[in-house]
Amino acid sequence: MTHACAPGAPPPGRRAVLGALAGVALGVAGCSSSSAPAERPPQGSASPTRPASSSPASPSSGLPRTTPWRPGSAEVQPAAKQRAVQLVEAIGAWGDGHGGVPAARARVAALGLPGDLVGQARPLLPTADQAALQVVDAQYGGILSRSASVLVVCRQWTRRGGTVGAGGTTVDVRLSRSGHGWTVDALHPAHPGPAARSLAPEVMGVLSDDRIVLPPAAAADLRSGQVHTSVARAMRALARGYRLEVSVVRSGHPLNVFGTGRPSDHPRGRTFDVWRIDGHAVVGPATPRGLIERFMRDAAAAGSYNVGGPLLPGGAAGRFFSDPTHHDHVHIGFRT
Q1: Is pLDDT above 80 for 252?
Q2: Where do the H-state alpha helices sit in 68-227?
Q3: 130-143 and 147-160 strand pairing
């Protein structure tokens, strides 16, 4: 989907832009047609604490120490993100003796959410004695007045006997809002598909580039061979000037632009999202506006027809767009 916005007066500060976006957040639909745990932004609105039974294992287990994810002060709807993350953390992390579906259902029920949601989150429940989960990022797949899609990007480590394994996924968490706050209605974990027997050189280059940080589902998307080479070429081009931390590529994203019947470019392997640039979170209130503007312009120069983010570079229109869904990441789309 192409967005066009008319140029206007000289752009305001980024905090002012975010504030304005928050005011119109509620009529805008979704995204258009191995690193250390992420730095944590300041805690947002208060929310129920995670049940003790879902806490990460002790360091003696061989699993890494993790930290609960918290929304920052510049979020449009911090409570929606917090609710989505709490659920994923509760399902995907457990201490010794607390694995399996019944224990996961109990942890979810302790959050005041339906235990049946556990059946929709099987990738988060591998057979293991213990598990630790680190949320890398939580970004919007779409935000409307009473519904939202929050894409929870996570890494997971499991211990089975004396063997520790690493994995993770991205979960599209669907929420609705009532007078009692946000609740979770459904979970849609990523399904990247099996690895391809051979990959294009551009894709191989991305997978080996240490300036491109890929979470598990995004890396699996590239290994599946279902991502267009235009995406891989743009990632490599941008990595020459920036360190990119990617959130979502193909799987784990809504099939349609959220709130519409129009197909998203993500499931077709034509788009990728970046949540952090040179160590600066896109949603961070202290992130320089100039860095985001420059990155968005360079994404367009790399061939993207549809660059979305928390602001319009210098009031530009055409191939750039901005809306509340994209206040926390930069969307970089291609036609083929």
Answers
A1: yes
A2: 78-92, 101-110, 201-207, 216-223
A3: antiparallel
Backbone phi and psi for residue 31, each to the nearest 5 degrees, phi listed first: -65, 130
> Does residue 166 have a pLDDT over 90?
yes
| Contacts with 70 (C-beta within 8 Å, 6 or more apart), sequence order | 40, 41, 42, 43, 44, 82
SS3 content of the chain, % helix, strand, coil (to 5): 30, 25, 45
Output the six-digit token pair for 229. Answer: 């080479």
Instruction: Round to whole Å and give the CA distance between 64 and 67.
Output: 10
> pTM for the full model?
0.83
pLDDT tens digits for range 253-303? 987 778 888 878 898 999 999 999 999 999 999 999 999 999 999 999 999
Please give the structure tokens belonging to residue 46.
């208060």
Q: What is the distance between the terminal CA atoms of the chain, rounded to a whole angstrom?
A: 13
Q: Encode 83-102: b = buried (16+ Cβ within 10 Å), e = exposed.
A: bbbbbbbbbbbbbeebbeee
CA-CA distance, 315 to 311, in Å (whole number)? 8
Cβ-based neighbours of 148, under 8 Å, separated by 6 or more? 77, 80, 140, 142, 174, 175, 176, 177, 182
When mean pLDDT is compared over 20-24, 49-53, 106-110, 310-314, the highest value belongs to 106-110
User: Tens of pLDDT along 228-238?
Assistant: 999 999 999 99
Q: Is residue 250 classed as helix, strand or coil in its secondary structure?
A: coil
301-305 own/partner pairs: CB under 8 Å, 24+ apart: 302/233, 302/234, 302/237, 302/238, 302/332, 303/230, 303/233, 303/234, 303/334, 304/234, 304/332, 304/333, 304/334, 305/2, 305/333, 305/334, 305/335
Q: For residues 30 and 267, is the Cβ–Cβ distance under 8 A?
A: no
